[in-house]
Amino acid sequence: MRAASLPVQRAADAKLLVVNRRGDLEHQLRSEFASLLHPGDLVIANNAATLPASLFGTHIPSGRSVEVRLAGRDSLSDTRHFSVVVFGEGDFRMRTEDRPKPPQLSPGDKLALGPLRGTVMRVLSHPRLISLQFEGSPRAIWEGLARHGRPIQYAHIAVPLAVWDTWTSIAGPPVAFEPPSAGFVLDWAMLASMAERNTRFETITHAAGISSTGDPELDALLPLDEPYWISHSAALAIKQTRERCGRIIAVGTTVVRALEHAAAVFDGFVPAGERLATQKIGASTRLRVVDGIVSGTHEPGTSHYELLRAFVDDEKLRLIDRELDAHQYRTHEFGDSVFVEKGDHQTRPRAGNRAPHETADFSNSRRFTCMS
Amino acid sequence: VSTSTPYWSRQTHNPFDSLRVAITGGTSGLGLALVHELLNRTAQVAFVARTRDNVERLIRELPEAHGIVGDVSVKEDAHPIAMQVLGALGGLDVLINNASDLGPTPLALLADTECEDVERALATNLLGPFRLTKALLGSLAASARERGGALVVNISSDAAINAYSRWGAYGASKAALLHLSRIWDEELATARVRVLSFDPGDMDTPLHAAAVPDADPSMLKRPATAARELARVIADVLPQRGPDPKTKFRAASQ
Description:
The complex is a heterodimer of chains A (372) and B (254). Chain A has 372 residues and is of the alpha/beta class. In chain A, 19% of the residues lie in helices and 26% in strands. Chain A has helices spanning 138-148, 163-166, 188-196, 216-219, 232-243, 253-265, 303-308, 314-326, and strands at 2-3, 15-19, 25-29, 42-46, 49-50, 54-59, 64-72, 81-87, 110-113, 116-126, 129-134, 174-176, 200-206, 226-230, 248-251, 273-277, 292-296, 330-331, 337-341. The two termini of chain A are 34 Å apart. A six-stranded parallel sheet of chain B has the order 3-2-1-4-5-6, with helices on both faces. Chain B has helices spanning 7-11, 29-40, 52-61, 78-89, 115-147, 168-187, 206-211, 223-237, 245-252; strands at 20-24, 44-49, 66-69, 94-97, 150-155, 193-198. Chain A binds chain B through residues 47, 49, 51, 77, 79, 138-139, 142-143, 145-147, 163-164, 167-174, 188, 191-192, 195, 202-203, 205, 231-236, 239, 272, 355, and chain B through 66-69, 78-84, 86-88, 90-91, 135, 137-139, 141-142, 145-146, 187, 190-191, 245-246, 248-249, 252-253.
């Protein structure tokens, strides 16, 4: 695959590799995605808008320049506390792998990041991954982030990304640190086209964390814990779609992580509310809610790639890789996409979206199976 | 339905309770009156204005309002403004694009109007509302799915319809905004986001004083009166909203 090097969210020739539940492969124009949906299907996207999460400034004790990238958070509403990755001098034109190491960071160290002031609270599981606390009122912090922050940049993109390059068409709460880029497939005409075919569309909000740092040790820790909010309308739509045996199609890995986290906690039920996704999804994950995923194309070894192993077996995944290579699919945030349905062998009888109190006497007689 | 919500309280439900509203041009004229009116009706209000001193002064006066410094006519300000609105309110139900630019003052015949004056009027009165609405549309649509409807109000003028001599820059930009509102309202119907125009009439505001310096203020509408009228329009357009998403969910899932 080749890297998509221009920040165009919906290139006219963007491709979509479709893998249905029987494992058949088919190439489509991505703009035709809505035509692959059925009446009664539910498409769920992550409507998190992307914060300009890259903050340049100074590590006060050493006087050295640093770049701080907001990477994670424990709550959607807390504006003071973030997990951040600290980089040394340089900028995105330098591959992150080649950047100088930042100064040694210790609890209590102050950082001056434009108008923002922060304190290192703790060093987390890696010397460059720290817990940072901003000073000041929420209003001052929001203004500082909005005015001083820049979108996290990518060395493979030829021009600097502007904030609007990183927001999907449906972007809402600014809580993500990197774009939930599978959502770049969506535009308002596509939503209208879904509505015309009686395919429902809902959003959840998932604070997508940093996706890659260029440091293998750090990248092994990803994804960090991510808070998410499931709206009441999304929870209701999930319940009704499952009752009617429609497919639940996640736009992006973050949606899979959120829905499957809720389902794992509540025994198949996906209730509304805010929670913290802590699990990783991979080959051993039993998907309980999501029937299909729209995703960018990712390279083996990344957490995004790992997640696809929950949908299809490794043999099929290798076949998909070969197909993407043979047809010159573009990878990374602004690249082409895949639409993968959960393989038949991965499908299990499904429980309805029942309230937790109903699951106490959850017996087979109350289950129902969606036959195709 | 939740037993904690008695019949009578549902009957007298205040549509502004917990309604999240953003108002541009919020430190003077109609915008300022709207900030007061909607706060009085217990809405959560974020206001935007260009001048930091004016924003800070209003925050001191109304600490429950969220003040944001930004210029809607500047492309690079749209997303920072949107981010701060959403940071302050956690989402958005109603956006009121009120900030306006009069064009040249004193008012001039079009043939005597500088291109830059027309560009500025278009930037503030047309492109600004377009960009900010676009940046906030995802949030408005999410609100519509969750609560039954969301609303954009673009402040209009009779100069958008009538060809008044010397009102060329303002009138043309407001006419374009009116048409933009009508088209967008049509396109967003299925998303249950309404886009309305509201003509407040001739008011005693700094903009009117700049346009017609010798007008008798006592003959002009008070901005507070227009703000009350607009609040009634908002309440009328959002009647089908659930009183509280939680209640709606419980009701629908039974």
